[in-house]
């Protein structure tokens, strides 16, 4: 199936935090290290032939360490993606392992250079190839699947048990030196189907909303940007205790006219660079 990906995304500081430790990478877009989130909801459509990639990063660490970890990881993701798009297309599993190692090395390198003992970031990403798509995560940033009738979490929570007094410690994240722990990203391959939706989000969403609430919103037949806006509004209404990052994408059938327009736009963008 010739397909395209429509995606909508936003990043918000929440109602409590004084800084934003979240970031994202959406087909080339990311936030600077110091930011106050996005201005509203953004949305785009891209051809599946261009191997779209989308990711959410939730930084951890005191003072400015969290936002730097998320920024360094998102920037490194962009560098690796640009240099290895052919690998993503031909051997996606190798790309995923390689980009995770590259991001981890970048975060660890920044930490060592700046004498920071504890910093890191979670990761949730979706990668599309002409034949199928892959979801991958490290930590507790989640990825959900919805087709209107079925809903499930397709990421793995890398946490150590449950902590009734606070957040459970993470067992996997970007920023762990290789000599201390082996990086083991959770990876799943899923076939393309028209109407499949994938939600990537930081715990600013999942700590505020139940899976049932998220499932109800994802199943609604409204524009993706409206779904993202509704998820953000609900998370803020429930307290907004953490930064909120939401990236939602949908697999859509691509008609020939749309493919020609997308190809011409891609050619124009390439010539302008």
UniProtKB/TrEMBL annotation:
Listed SMART domains: PP2C_SIG, PP2Cc
CDD domains per the UniProt record, alphabetical: PP2Cc
Span of domain PPM-type phosphatase: 6-251
Pfam families: PP2C_2
Molecular function per GO: protein serine/threonine phosphatase activity
Stored InterPro entries: PP2C, PPM-type-like_dom_sf, PPM-type_phosphatase-like_dom
Protein name from the UniProt record: SpoIIE family protein phosphatase
Organism whose genome encodes this protein: Blautia luti DSM 14534 = JCM 17040
């Amino acid at each position: 199936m010739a397909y395209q990906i429509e995606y909508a995304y936003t990043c918000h500081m929440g109602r409590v935090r004084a800084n934003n430790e979240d970031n994202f990478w959406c087909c080339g877009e990311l936030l600077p290290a110091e930011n106050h989130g996005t201005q509203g909801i953004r949305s785009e459509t891209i051809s599946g032939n261009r191997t779209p990639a989308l990711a959410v990063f939730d930084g951890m660490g005191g003072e400015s360490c969290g936002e730097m970890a998320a920024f360094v990881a998102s920037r490194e993701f962009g560098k690796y993606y640009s240099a290895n798009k052919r690998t993503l297309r031909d051997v996606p599993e190798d790309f995923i392992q390689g980009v995770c190692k590259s991001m981890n090395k970048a975060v660890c390198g920044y930490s060592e250079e700046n004498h920071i003992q504890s910093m890191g970031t979670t990761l949730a990403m979706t990668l599309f190839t002409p034949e199928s798509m892959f979801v991958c995560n490290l930590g507790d940033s989640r990825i959900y699947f919805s087709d209107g009738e079925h809903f499930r979490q397709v990421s793995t929570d890398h946490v150590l048990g449950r902590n009734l007094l606070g957040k459970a410690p993470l067992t996997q994240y970007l920023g762990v030196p290789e000599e201390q722990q082996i990086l083991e990203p959770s990876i799943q391959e899923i076939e393309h189907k028209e109407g499949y939706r994938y939600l990537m989000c930081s715990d600013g969403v999942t700590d505020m909303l139940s899976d049932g609430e998220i499932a109800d919103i994802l199943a609604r037949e409204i524009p993706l940007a409206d779904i993202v806006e509704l998820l953000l509004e609900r998370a803020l209404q429930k307290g907004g205790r953490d930064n909120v990052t939401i990236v939602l994408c949908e697999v859509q059938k691509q008609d020939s006219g749309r493919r020609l327009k997308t190809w011409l736009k891609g050619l124009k963008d390439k010539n302008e660079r």
